[in-house]
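[Q] Does anyone have a clean structure-token version of this?
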Amino acid sequence: FVMPGLGSQTISVFGADPLGTPASVNGVPGSFLALARPDGARYYVFARGGGDSLLILDASFNVVTRKSIGDDVKAAMLTPDGRRLVVLTGTLRVFDAETGNEIVPPSSPDVGAVPMDVAVNQDSKRAFVLSPSAQRVIAIDISTPNLAAAGNVFLGGGEYAGIAVGPNGYV
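[A] Here you go.
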């Protein structure tokens, strides 16, 4: 998936072997990220700004659902098992990857004032949110609809730009 530049909404989708263009998708202005379920049944395209900030596409790149998340999307990940879509806006939002429905917890998890990035562990049970303004990494249990905090680590001073989880579980 190659995202459009300013003034265009057309997302180009290339086959990998041989390299070719099997499809174009009419995205939305500000499209910046595409994620794919491991089985290839769904694709998720994110855009910054208002309007349709999440497009859910089927395996043939047809738009299944358009969603306005409302807040500026900062980062998103699909869990390795392909069941959950984890989206970071001003808070952490979790969607069922099959239906596109948001899993709404009883209360929003505390991810700091200005969360910046999110990563998910290999067993798809925890999301880790980087919140530089709060100088911490927050672990959230995403295996249940409660989205409960599962711990946090305070960082020393400095600037932080991203977070990742390795296959060994290290964050």
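[Q] Thanks! Anything notable?
[A] The first strand starts at residue 10 and ends at 16.
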